[in-house]
Amino acid sequence: MKASQKLAVTMMLLTGLILITAPAVQGLVIDPNNAYYGDGYKSWAKFRQDVGKQQAKITSCYTKALVKCIGSTDPNTTTAEWPSRCNAVDPNSSTTDTDTKATWKAALAKCDSKVDLAKKNPADPNGVIGYRDIGCPAEDPNWLATGMTDYQNKTMETTRASVQDVANSIPGSCDLFGAPSEGEDLQACLVAMGKAAEKTVKSVFKCQEKCENDLANKKGNGGPTDNQLTCSADAPPALPNPFTECVNKAVEKGRKLAQKNTAAGALWDSAMGITLPKLDDSTNDLYNECRCGSGIGPCPIVP
Predict the structure, then answer these.
(1) How buried is 3 (Cβ within 10 angstroms: 0-12 exposed, 13-18 middle, 19+ buried)?
(2) 219 with 231: CB under 8 angstroms?
(3) Global model pTM greater than 0.90
(4) How many other CB atoms sit within 10 Å of the CB of residue 197?
(5) pLDDT at 4
(6) Which residues in the chain come in under a pLDDT of 70?
């Protein structure tokens, strides 16, 4: 297989991988200097931070459920058949065995039951004001939610769709990077890559969360700044820097997990080369974007 073909498939894989592990969260820079919040700055900052944590958790939960479903499915499955075995968008249509399907559906439902994005909303209970005051989160301005409840539903829907994107793309990539087109070795690559990616992205997001909320220059000092570079996982500041050390540690831990499988290990550097910039985009959106519109809520007036 030519290197260009491997790169193309790797990019296709990571496009799906990032959708699941780095949901495109849009938000707002909430800082002590934003007069809109007045004395309530801390409560809104904590609310936004909690929304990000919960989105990371549900992403992790779906991913773990997917890996478990794959690992429990009959390995005599081809690369073309794997995507339909554990269907995240429509679990009822999953073609894995009956017992695994039941476990898969229950796992997804359990993930959903843990989500309450408005839990720390300091405003109204139904979440309309709270949604506005964290910058109207959305994947794009074409589907702004009506409030936190609607946003939560959209978040779970889009994340499940992203899980399915991963299920569609990983098998072919494992095949091209050394695994056979079916059997236990292919299944092992799917499980190894899924576990490594889930843990790495989860850890990197924690590094970025700590950095972006740091006002005391202890975790990267991203709190006082308004740009992507301070807490960039793809191009982190020069060492010594606590944020850079955090990211490097997360990536190397993930590498060791991936290397438990030859094909997954061979794919790792290419995966991170595409993953980390996407994580930067997602984190930047969360801490620097305001989707409500010019002059609405905390959003600045755009001339």
Answers:
(1) exposed
(2) no
(3) no
(4) 29
(5) 46
(6) 1-34, 125-126, 140-141, 226, 303
